[in-house]
Write a structure and sequence with these properties.
The chain contains four helices and five strands; from the N terminus they run αββααβββα. The protein has 181 residues and is an alpha+beta fold. The protein has one domain.
Length: 181
Amino acid sequence: MSRIYAIILCLGAFVISTDQWTKYLALEKLHFEGQSIPFWSWFSFTLVHNHGAAFGMLRNLPDSIRVAFFLVMPLAVLGILWGSLVRHYKPNQLLAPLAMGLVFGGAIGNLIDRMRFGYVIDFVDWFYPSNDGSCIPLFFYQPGSGCHWPVFNIADSAISIAVVLLAVDSWRNPVTSPTKT
């Protein structure tokens, strides 16, 4: 069981430190919200203050509800995942502890931002050109610059990768109910 804790804590610490370091660099180079530095024709660094959840959802909640929700929710999710992972962990499972480490690091990385700034620093802007305003699902149209995926950060990426790993792990290692005899 100590191996699972080592994987979770080491990967979580790596995600937290990488996330906070890249956010520090973003704040050093991008001085105001909306400022952008092009990198490739389909990718730039754009500073966004995300007051909501993933993809900016729930950003219009009243401050008293939003702040409490976004401070308590990551801790609740971590507790639920921790309890279910530790209870059902099998020694041959590698994806579950990796996913837990990614979720742990991502949740804490964004929680640090919420406690420091009251919002999450997002800066990775991925997009493609569109002249007519039609975008594929989950992308949104921004006049003059095409179709954009919601701006995100390293912590968001870690959590998204964790979701994929947990889906693969549950497919490879389905939970079976005990048979009745």
